[in-house]
Design a protein that fits this description.
The protein is mainly alpha-helical and about 210 residues long. It has one domain (about 1-210). About 75% of the residues lie in helices and about 5% in strands. The chain has helices at about 1-25, 30-50, 55-80, 100-120, 125-150, 160-180, 190-210; strands at about 85-90, 95, 100, 155. The strands form 2 sheets. The chain has a two-stranded antiparallel sheet.
Length: about 210
C-alpha cells in the first residue's frame, strides 16, 4: 500500500510541476485555470482514499468545517468586513451568492491536511491549533498574489489587507480547536504530502509573479 501511495505522491508532484509551467505560460493559462476546480476536488478525494483509519466524528467534523468555512466566506463577501473587501472570480467554478462552492472544500481540505501533518506530534490542543493556523496563514501568504493574478478572487484596489491574514489565522485557529475537541486526527502521509506540494506550488508561482 505504501508503495502505491509513494507512486501517487510522485505522480501528483509531477502534475503540480506541469501546473506551474502551465500557469507561467500565458497561452496555457485558460486551460489550467479551468482545471483548478478539478484539481482541488481530486486531491481532496485522493487524500481520503489513502486515509488509514476512517472515524465518523472525524469525517463529520471535516464536513462541518467545510460548511462553516463556506458561510464565513459568504459573510465576508456580503459584508466586505471580515477578511476585507474582495470578490470571487471565475476560476473556482460554480457559485452561490457570489461564493464558489469549492471554497468550502478548500477550507475542509486545508484543515484536514494541516491536522494530519500535526497529528501525534503535539499533545496540547492550543499548541496544535496555533501551529496549524500558522501553517495555513503562511500558505495563504504564498497563495494570495497567485489567486489574484489567476482570477480566483480580487481585492479592492488590488491591495491584500493585513486584516485578511489576521482573520485567516483566527478562523483556522478556531477550526483546529473545534476539530481536536471533537476527535483525534491521525497521521495521513498523502494529506501531508499534498500540503507540502501545494505550498511549494504557490511559493514558486508567488516568486514568479513578484519577479515578473
Amino acid at each position: 500500500m505504501q508503495t502505491v501511495e509513494n507512486r501517487f505522491i510522485a505522480v501528483i508532484a509531477v502534475i503540480y510541476a506541469v501546473g506551474i509551467a502551465g500557469f507561467m505560460i500565458p497561452s496555457l493559462n485558460a486551460l489550467f485555470m479551468w482545471l483548478t476546480p478539478i484539481n482541488i476536488l481530486a486531491t481532496f478525494v485522493i487524500a481520503w482514499i489513502f486515509h488509514k483509519k476512517w472515524e465518523f466524528n472525524h469525517v463529520l467534523m471535516i464536513l462541518i468545517i467545510g460548511i462553516i468555512g463556506f458561510f464565513i466566506e459568504l459573510a465576508g463577501v456580503k459584508t466586505q468586513a471580515i477578511f476585507g473587501s474582495y470578490l470571487y472570480g471565475k476560476t473556482l467554478g460554480a457559485k452561490w451568492q457570489g461564493v464558489p462552492y469549492l471554497i468550502g472544500v478548500n477550507w475542509a481540505a486545508m484543515i484536514f491536511y494541516t491536522s494530519s501533518l500535526l497529528a501525534g506530534r503535539i499533545k496540547n490542543n492550543l499548541g496544535v491549533a496555533f501551529l496549524g493556523a500558522l501553517i495555513m496563514t503562511i500558505y495563504d501568504y504564498f497563495l494570495e498574489p497567485v489567486a489574484v493574478k489567476y482570477d480566483f478572487w480580487h481585492w479592492k484596489n488590488g491591495i491584500i489587507p493585513l486584516q485578511n491574514y489576521f482573520v485567516w489565522f483566527i478562523v483556522a485557529f478556531v477550526m483546529h480547536l473545534i476539530l481536536n475537541a471533537a476527535c483525534k486526527p491521525i497521521k495521513n502521509r498523502m494529506a501531508t504530502a499534498l500540503l507540502f506540494i501545494q505550498m511549494a506550488f504557490f511559493l514558486i508561482l508567488h516568486i514568479y509573479i513578484r519577479l515578473f
